[in-house]
Amino acid sequence: MPALSNRTKDFTDSVIRRMTRVSMKYDAVNLSQGFPDFDPPKELLDRLAEVSKEDFHQYSITWGAQNFREALAEKQSKLMGRQIDPNGEIVVTCGSTEAMMAAVMTVTDPGDKIIVFSPFYENYGADTILSGSEPIYVPLYPPEFNFNTDELEAAFKQHPKALILCNPSNPCGKVFTREELQIIADLAVKYDTFVITDEVYEHIVYAPYKHTYMASLPGMWERTISCSSLSKTYSITGWRLGYIIAPPEIIDTAKKVHDFLTVGAAAPLQEAAVTGLRFGDDYYKWLQDKYTRKRELFLKGLDDIGISHTVPQGAYYIMLDISEFGYKDDLEFCYDLAKDVGVGAVPGSSFFREDVNHLIRLHFAKKDETLNEALNRLEHIRSKMTYRK
Ligand code: GLN
Fold first, then answer.
1. For residue range 179-198, what is the model confidence (pLDDT) as tens digits?
2. Rounded distance from Cα 266 to ligand 1 centre (Å)
């Protein structure tokens, strides 16, 4: 057999998604891959049932159905503080996963460099490999996950084509302040670099923190490619609806990349999701309250057990410190945790460029009863896990 591609030969499967399969195997409460186990809003499901009997079974326009783009433009215009043109400034994609890949393909050539903050969401590594670009990693330092401006500028001095910004951040829960965004923006302007954002947790932010859109900073609309999705906002991760918002010159190319990658996102699902895009502000307030309560419940449970952890400002992940168990390999820890304790988690090493093996990631986008069950199981973590000292 001829050799397979060099580009993909070092790929592993996604550890995040593998841990869902491991959780299923051991019947563990799956707090690994981040997705809810509660229903999407009823209005979306009702509309979806109707749509199955209407005329939405063929391709929509490749860059997204007209009414979907119009509803999205109206919603995001309010949030981003500028009038977004549904025809020239949006591409609808198969999840933010495709949006990010298409954004990277739109702005880079093989050999180009891309700044990625570490810890980072697993897919960005794969995005750089698939596009033939090279990541420059810049560390975020716990507990606040702040960057060092000199280190960031040193990365910009290597003439990257783009910087990837996950805000609110998966996995560390950081919500970048306006001041931090301004530092990044100033460097992006100074070194003539694009910023590709991943803002899928834009509506999951805990008071007093607030989400600021990079594209809304002065001078940044021109060089920001904003990627996001409906997955987390409407609890529909399986619908795979995402999008890119950017100036028309960038969108022109992104439309073509997207067209050749996937042709388009599922037409019936776009139609049903328009209902969600037209929700009023009260929905987003309700969502935020819901996650605020879940965060409280879960963090309190972990504090009662007495394991130290990060406190997210946004998104729905926490990193648990597992140093006390003495494992050298956090992946092995996660397998044992699923098997012996019955809780699925993602090893921290999946997110860090640095050699970090003492953290695991859990998420709390689950029904209260699921979270309580996970906490009940975690109460026995010290008696059930082996110690590797
Ligand atoms: N963003 C989610 C996570 O980090 C899942 C994303 C995915 O698997 N596509 O767990």
1. 999 999 999 999 999 999 99
2. 19
